[in-house]
Here is the input.
Amino acid sequence: MNSLFKSLFMIVPMSLSMVTYFKFDKEYLITDKISYKINVDKKWKPCVVISCYFLFMLILGIIGIYVIDISDNLYSIMSGLVLGVSLGFVNKLSNQNKNI
Here is the structure.
């Protein structure tokens, strides 16, 4: 039960950020603008986004360990927010690749 409660600190922000990202992306076309600036083949763009997510989380983890003390709950919330945006971005890129 304790692990389920701890996972909510990541799942809830992730789902909220995904919903928010889809709404903003529908209105402002964020994915298209960022995708245009990434100079990689279309089939590799989702991989690049996930790699950037892992790099960002690695940097955030190193900062949390060695520079400032970030609590586990705050780290889970922040990683959930970034993961939700990344997954929303990758989902739209994957759907665009299927249409081509």
